Amino acid sequence: MKNKRIIALIFALICFFVLLGVLLWSIFREPENNTVETGSSSQTQEQPQKTDENQSPENTDTEEPSDSKEDDKKEDTVTSAGQNDDPAPTEDQPSSPEKLNPNPTTKEEIKAVLNDPFMILINRDHKVSSDYVGDDLVTYSGAYKLNSTCAAALRKLINAGQKAGYSYTLYSGYRSYSSQYNKYYNKIAYWEGQGYSNEEAVRLTNEYYAPPGASEHHTGLAADVCIPEIVNKYACLHENYDQTEEFKWFSAHAHEYGFILRYRKGDEDITGYNYEPWHYRYVGVEVATEIYNRDITFEEYIQDLENRLAALE
Ligand SMILES: [Zn+2]
After folding, report:
1. How many A from CA of 85 to the centre of ligand 1?
2. Read out DSSP for 53-105?
3. Tens of pLDDT along 232-276?
4. Active site residues
5. Any idea which architecture 35-312 has in CATH?
6. Rounded-to-integer distance, Cα 58 and Cα 242, Å
7. Residues with CB under 5 A from ligand 1 (ion)
8. Among candidate residues 42, 46, 76, 69, the one with its CA nearest the CA of residue 224
9. Is residue 83 within 8 Å of residue 43, measured between CB atoms?
């Protein structure tokens, strides 16, 4: 009897230490697990929406991914922050540009900014080649992809907006060269079908569409962000979007998360694009804040750096 008790006691002690070991092991390895999920597609609040582009000529350089129509019926947004079960984005994203000096003075500092992959300048004069593919693309929601660092920052920004009482929808992210090619030339064909000459059709198309290679969406660093109310009422991408409280909050805080409003009203001659209150570009917190505070375009920021460098050489 006594032996049985001793055996039971030893068995209980072994069980206790095994359980203790398992518990300690699981606690010890937990932080490592949490860093893996950034950029996954497990978020819930943004889903792509189909819009009728003919309702809004301001649809410009943007387009929906070809397979996004399948997601039309999905519930769109999470209206309370409490429902959002996104993993917290990690702070130390690889290749983050946020360590850059946004107001550089030495050759080395200036070159570091100009050569950083997050500083890529794309516009009608700076096109990427047909074989270009954006770096480090991850699924953001539905059919949309973004660069992983950009995606993590956008989640943070949208979550902060939700805490302030606003809901946002990602309308367009990464776009391949070929999809932009098809979009652009289909639009030219559309205008020609309306009876316009080729020259006129190209001119009309260029008013609102980026030629292939000239769209920032090729990088995965550009996000068209809109609000469900507009998405459901009109075509999402509409200049009137800037009359909403949602836009005002977003445009005032985007730089805090690394985004700039890329195509501003009044800067069309510099950017080469019409005003797009929905189009944001990720450049990292430091540079975005610098551009926001100096109240300039990305083109002017890059040009200023090139001028500084030229003056030193
Ligand atoms: Zn856009």
Report:
1. 27
2. GGG-GGGTT----TTGGGGTTS-----SGGG--PPPPPS--TT-GGGS-SS--
3. 665 556 667 888 888 999 999 999 999 999 999 999 999 998 889
4. 276
5. 2-Layer Sandwich (3.30)
6. 13
7. 62, 224, 279
8. 46
9. no
Max Cα distance, the chain (Å): 104
CA distance 220 to 102: 21
C-alpha of residue 70 to centroid of ligand 1, in Å: 21
Cα of 169 vs centre of ligand 1, distance in Å, is 13
CA 121 to ligand 1 centroid distance, Å: 14
What is the pTM for the complete model shown? 0.70
Ligand 1 center to residue 171 CA distance, Å? 9
Query: What are the sequence ranges of the domains in the chain?
Result: 35-312
Q: How confident is the model at residue 81 (pLDDT cuts 50, 70, 90)?
A: very low
> What is the C-alpha to C-alpha distance for residues 13 and 31, in angstroms, rounded to an integer?
29
Structure tokens at 35: 């860093």
Paired tokens of 144: 């949309």
- Token pair recorded at residue 265: 């009203």
- Work out the pLDDT band at 143, boundaries 50, 70, 90: confident
Residues in CB range of 13: below 8 A, 6 or more apart = none
Report d(CA 138, CA 141) in Å as an integer: 9
Q: Quick one: what percent of the chain has pLDDT higher than 90?
A: 55
Mean pLDDT of 30-56: 31
| Tokens describing residue 140 | 């953001």
